[in-house]
Amino acid sequence: MLAVTVILILVAIIIAIDVPSLLRKKLKKELWIFSVLLLFGTALSISQALNIKIPNPLDWITAIYKPLSDMIEKLLK
Prior knowledge:
This is Stage III sporulation protein AF. It comes from Peribacillus butanolivorans. Keywords: Membrane, Transmembrane, Transmembrane helix. The chain crosses the membrane at residues 6-24, 31-50. By secondary structure, the protein is mainly α. The chain contains 3 helices and no strands. The chain has helices at 2-24, 28-49, 57-76.
């Protein structure tokens, strides 16, 4: 639980440093992108701190392309 608290404190510091300058410069699109990426990173960090299993995208890519790879390998032999 300490790790989650530290992560949230760090996120609050990042927001306090970056958001005011984005608001002053009226960079609304950049603020949205910053917010989405920060939220995504925070969620992944908290999930990892709580030992929640996060699926690996490489496993999905392997599952999709493995049959195609096997078929091409058989054709080339």
